[in-house]
Amino acid sequence: MVRARDLGGVSGQGRSRGHARGERRAGATHQGGLPVLRRPRLLQGATVVSPFDLNPEQRKAATTLAGPVLICAGAGSGKTRVLTERTANAVVDGAVEGWDPVRIGEILAITFTEKAAGELAERIKGALRAAGYLAEARRVDAAWVSTMHGMCTRILRAEAVGLGLDPEFRIVSGVELSRLRTALLDDVLSDATASSPDAARLLGLYGFSALSEALSALADFIDETDAHPGSFDHGAARPARRLFDEAVGFFSAMDAELADLTPTCEAAGLHRAACADTASLLRGLESAELDDAALAEELYRVLQEHRAPGKWAGMGEQRSAIAGEIARLSKECATATLAPLSRELVALADEYNSRFRCAKQALGALDFNDLERLTRRLLGNPAAAARWADRFKLTLVDEFQDTNETQLAVVRALAGENLCTVGDARQSIYGFRGAQVEVFEEQSEEMAEQGAVRVDLGVNYRSHADVLGFANVLFSADELFGPDLQPLEHGRDRSADVPLPPERARVEIVLGQESDGARSKVADELAGRFESLHVEQGIPPSDMVVLLRTYTHAAVYAQALRRRGLEAVVLGGKRFLILPEVAALRSALRVMVNEADDSAVLQFAASELVGLSDAALVAAVDAAVEHSTPLVRAFAIAGLDEVDERLAAAMVHGLEVGRQTAATRTLGEVFLRLAECIGADLRFVAEGVDGAQAYANLLKLARMADAFGMDGGGLAGFSAYLDDLELFDEHEAPASLLGEGAQVVRIMSIHSSKGLEYPVVAVAELDAPGKSDSHIARWERRSDRVDIGMKLPSSIEGKGGTGSTDVFDSLKEAGSMQSKAEVKRLFYVACTRARDYLLLTGVHSFKPSKASTMLQMMVEGLDLPLEPGRDEPIELAGGLRVGFTAIAADAPVPEEGEGLGAAGESAGIDEAAAQRAFLAAIEPAPIEVRELDAPAPRRLSYSGIARYRACPRRYGVEQSIGRLDTESGGAGATRLGSAVHAVLELYGEVEAIDDARVSAIATTNGLDRALRARLSDAVERYRSSALATRVAAVPSVRREVAFAVRIEDEDGASFLLDGQIDVYGRDGDRALIIDYKSGTRPLDTDALREKYRLQAECYALAALRDGAQEVEVVFVRPEMETAAGELETVGYRFSADDEAGLVSAPLEAWQAIRSGWFEPLDAWCDEECGHCSVSETMCPIKAGGAG
After folding, report:
1. Looking at domain 482-571+744-887, does it have CATH number 3.30.70.1150?
2. Residue 740 banded pLDDT, cuts 50, 70, 90
3. Which residues are 779's β-sheet partners?
4. Contact, 874 vs 864, CB < 8 A?
C-alpha cells in the first residue's frame, strides 16, 4: 500500500491517466512518471500501523504481481503488511511498472480464519482509502476476501440451480450435524449387523464407539476423494485352512525334534509339553464348523496363547524357530481375519455416505465438507472452471501450509497465471483439522519448477535478538528441524526492547524432576519469574502469557500465579458446559422445566451458587421421603438451621421467579433473575477475577438462551439443546469479561496463540504427551488405488505387533512420524510468539527417555545438563546465555497459602458479618399464584385452538415458557407421523418408492427399528387402499398446502387462522382434503369424529374461502384397520352454506385469549394434568382435586 501523494497524477511533464476503471484518484506527483515506493504508509482508519520501510524481500513480494509467486513467510516477518501492500498495489494505477491495475472485486484472497479475513479486509480498505481510492475501498466488504469455506459457499449459491441445490441451502453443523451422523451410523450398523455376518463380527470385535469413529472417518475420506469402494486394496490374505495345516505341521515337526533333545536337555522337555498343549488346541479347531475368517481368528488366538517356558538353555535354534513361526503364522492369520472385515468396513462407509447425502438433501442442507467437495466437483467441469477463473485477475492464498488436497484442487481451478501462495511449512500445526503440509511442499516444488518467483521473508521484526537466537539454535538441532531450518534474521529496532537487567537471561529453562508435586514446583517457579518481571521491571500482567499444549493442568498454573499476586485467566478450551457455575445453572434449568427432577435439585442446591450444607441436603431428602413430596418443596418443611433455611428459601424463590420470567421475558433473563435471587451476582463481585469470569460465563449462557429462544424454543428445549452439546462434544470455550488491556496473565493453548505475540511468553507443560493412537484402521490413497489396513482389537491383539496387517503397520509408522513432525512445528510456533522474554518449563525424569515430547526434543537438542538442584546459566552456540534451573525431587512443594494471593487479601474481614449481610440481601419476596398476561396472537392454528380449549392455563404458560411435556411415548408417534407425511408427500399414491430416500427420512426423524417397520406398513396400507386410488383420480392434487384465513370480529379486529393440509385435491368446485394421523390407540367412531371435528372445520373453512362449494375432509389412520380389514378413516362433508358457522369456534377461542382468560381447569384431569409440569405457583390445581 502506498501513500496517496505517491500514487496520484503524474508530474507536469507526463500525461494525466485515470484509474483503469474510470475512478478519479487524489492528485499527487511521481518522479519520472513512476510511483515512489520508498516508504509506503499503511493506514488502519487514521492510525499508522507500519512505520518502518519495506526490506528488499518484502518489497519484492509486494510488487511482483504478474506470474506465479511463492512467498515463504517466516514468523514475525511482517507478512500481513506485505499482503496488504501487495493487494493495494494491484489496484492502484501505476503502483507497479508494467502492471495493468484491477478492481478489488477481481482479486481472490483466501485466508485460514474469518478473523484473519476480516483483519486483511480492514487493512486493505485502509490502504486504499489512504491512496485515494475511496470507491474501491467501499467495495472491499463485497470483495472476495474470505475463508475457503466462505468462498465455496458464494460459488455454490451462484451455481445452485445447475447443481440441483437450493440456492438458500443452509450449513448444518454442531449439534444438528452430530445428531444426524450418530443416528445414521446407528442405523447403518443396525441394518448391516442384522444381515451381514462380517458386519456383526466387526461390531462384536470393536464395539460401537471405536467402529463408528473409524466408519465416520473412512466415509469422510471416501466422500472427499471420490474414492470408489472397488479401488481399495485390502491386501493378499492366504486361506485360513492352509495356515491351519501349516501350524499343525510345524508343531508336529517340533514335537519330534524336541523329543530327540529331551534326554539331554531339560528345557526341551518343557517346551515339548508346551507345543503339545498348543497342538491339542489346534486339533480342537479341526472339528469346529468355522468359515475361513472365523477359523483364521481362532487360529490367531491359539497361537497367541502358546505359553513358552522361560528356560531355553541348549535350544538356541529351536527358540528362534518357535518364536519366528508363531510370529509369521500370527501375522498371516491376522491378515486373513482382517481382510473381510476391511472390505465390510468400506462397504459400510459407502452405505453411510449414501444415506448421509439423502438425509442432507431432505433437510436442504450441506455440511462444511460438502462446500469444498461440491466446489471441487463443479470446477472439474472445464466450462465452469473457465467461467470462474475469468473473474479473477489475481489470486492470493494465505496460510497455504494449512490446506489439503481438495482445497488445492479448488485453488488450481480458480487461479490463473497470477497465483501467489503464502506460507511457512514450519508453522503447519492443524493436521488434526485435515491440513496436509505435504500438499504445501509439493505445490511449492511444482510452482518452482514452473518458474515461480520465490520470495523468502526471513527477517523477524518481532523478537529480541536473544530470543530469536535461541530459537535458531534450538530448532537447528537434528532432534528438531536440523539443516532444514532456515534461521530467521533479527530485524527489530533495539529501541523496542523491553529493558531487563544485564544479569537476567531473556531465555530461561525450568525443569522439575519427576516426583509428587513436581508440576506445582515448576508452576511456582514460573509464577515467581513472572512476579519478578512485573514487580521489578514493571512489565504489566497483560503483556504475559502461558502457552499450553493441552489444558489438563491449566488450573495449576493459574493458582500458582495468584499465589504470587498475579491474576490469571484461562482462555479457551472446551470446558464451558462443565464449569461449576454453568453446570449449576443447567441443573436449575432442569428444575424449572420439571420440579420433580430431584437429582437436578440436589445438584443445584449443593453447588457453590446456592451453598446449602450437607446436613441441609440430607434433611431435605428425608423430609421429601417422609411427606411424599418433590424435593424442591421439602426444604421448607425440613427443619433447617437459620442459614440453610435462608439459602433454601432464596433458591426456591429464584426458581419460581425464573419460571415466571420465562412466561413474559426472554430466556436469557431467566438466568439473570435467578442469579440475582440467589445472590450469585454478589458472590461473583466478591471473588475478583474468578468472579468476573464466572459472571461472564453466566452472561454467555444467557446469550445462548436468547439466541435459542429467537427460534421459538423454550426452557425445556434449551435444556435438551445443552445436553446435546455435551453429548456430541460440541463444547464451547469459556467466556471472559476481560478486554485486551485487562491486567491479568492469560493462559491459552499454543494453537490459540497462532498469529499473536506477547512480550513475555512461558511455554509450559513441554512434557505433555500427544493423544494415544486408538485407530482400528488406516488408509492412504495411491495413484490408482487406496491401501487400507486394520488391526485386531487390543483384547485379542496379543504380543509382538502381530495383530495387524503390514499396511496398517506401515501407515501407523508414517502417521507417527507425521505426528512427531507436527509436534516440532507446534513447539516452533510457541517459541516464536515471544518478543522479549521466553520461559520453557516441564517435568522430566532426569533419565534417558525415548518420549517424543517437546521437552525431550529440547533436552537432547541442547544437551541439557539434567543435574537435580542445578541453578545456573548454560551457554549455547554463539555465546548465547540461557538461564537453567533443574528442580530436585526433594525440593519443597509450595503450600496453598503462600504468596500474595487471595488468602492474604481476606485478612481482617468479619466473615460472620459478611454472611449476615449476604443473607439479608437475598431475602426472598413472597410469591403469589400469578396471573398470565399474554398478548393476543396475530396468527392462531388449529392445534393452538385445541391446546387452549384443553387447558387455558397451560396454553398461556406454554406460549412463553415453551412446551413443558417430558419425553414420553408420544414423541415416537410424533416422529412417526412426520415420517409418514414426508414419504407420502414425496411419492403420493402411485409413484415407486425409493427405499434409500425412505431410510433417510426415517433416520432424519429418529425412528428406531420398530418405528421403521410401522412406517413401512402404514405407507403400504394407505397406498393399497381404495382412498388412495380415489385421490389418484382427482385432476388436481397438491401436498403440504399451507393456508391462512383471516377472521374478523364485530369490531373489525382480526387474526389469521393458519395451518397446513397434507393433501388438497380439487375437481372443479369440489374439494377433497386428506390428513394423515399416526397412532395405534383404538377409538370408536364417535370418539374419533369428535376428536377431529374442530380440525375438519378449520380445513373446510380454508377450502371454502378458496372457492370450493363442496368439501370432503377425510382423516386417515394408516396404522389402523377396520374389522373388515379396510383402512380406518373418518370423514366429514361441508357446503358453502356452512361457512358462517365454521368461523365461530376459532373466533371464540381467539377472543378468549385476547381477553387474557387463562383460567385453570375446574378440577384435576388425568389426561391433561397427569403429564403437565406447570409449577404450583402458576396453577393451583393439584392431584386428588385439591385446589
Report:
1. no
2. low
3. 788
4. yes
Query: Is the distance from CB of 620 to CB of 647 less than 8 angstroms?
Result: no
Model confidence pLDDT, tens digit, residues 390-422 = 999 999 999 999 999 999 999 999 998 999 999
Domain boundaries, the chain: 4-169+371-461, 482-571+744-887, 576-727, 967-977+1004-1152
For residue 960, the SS3 value is helix
Give, for 171, the enclosing helix (H) or strand (E). Answer: strand 170-171
What mean pLDDT value characterizes the chain? Answer: 85
CA count, 13 A, side-chain hemisphere, 655: 31
**How far is it, in rounded angstroms, from Cα 900 to Cα 27?**
61
Helix 952-961 / helix 642-664 crossing angle, nearest 10 deg: 90
DSSP conformation letters of 270-327: HHHHHHHHHHHHHHHHHTS---HHHHHHHHHHHHHT----S--TT-HHHHHHHHHHHH
How many Å apart are CA 488 and CA 75, to the nearest integer?
8
pLDDT tens track for 476-513? 999 999 999 999 999 998 888 888 998 899 999 999 99
Using CA atoms, how far residue 895 sits from 556, 563, 710, 801, 834, in Å, is 12, 9, 49, 46, 30
**What separation, in Å, do the N-terminal and C-terminal C-alpha atoms of the chain show?**
77
Query: How many angstroms separate the CA atoms of 698 and 692, rounded?
Result: 10
CATH class of the domain comprising 4-169+371-461: alpha beta
Q: Which of 704, 648, 642 is nearest to 672 (CA)?
A: 704
| CB distance 397 to 148 below 8 Å | no
The CA-based angle 178-181-184, given to 5 degrees, is 150
Lowest mean pLDDT among 48-57, 137-146, 439-448, 839-848: 48-57
Same fold, 4-169+371-461 and 482-571+744-887: yes
What is the mean predicted confidence (pLDDT) over 195-211? 91
pTM above 0.70, yes or no: yes
Task: Determine which helix (DSSP H) or strand (DSSP E) holds 970, and give its type and residue range.
Answer: helix 969-987
Q: Decide yes or no: CATH 1.10.8.470 for domain 576-727.
A: no
| Residues 1111-1137, mean pLDDT to the nearest whole number | 90
> 43's torsion region: left (phi>0), alpha (psi -120 to 50) or beta?
beta
Instruction: Compute φ and ψ for 862, nearest 5 degrees.
Output: -100, -5
CATH 3.90.320.10 is held by the domain 967-977+1004-1152: yes
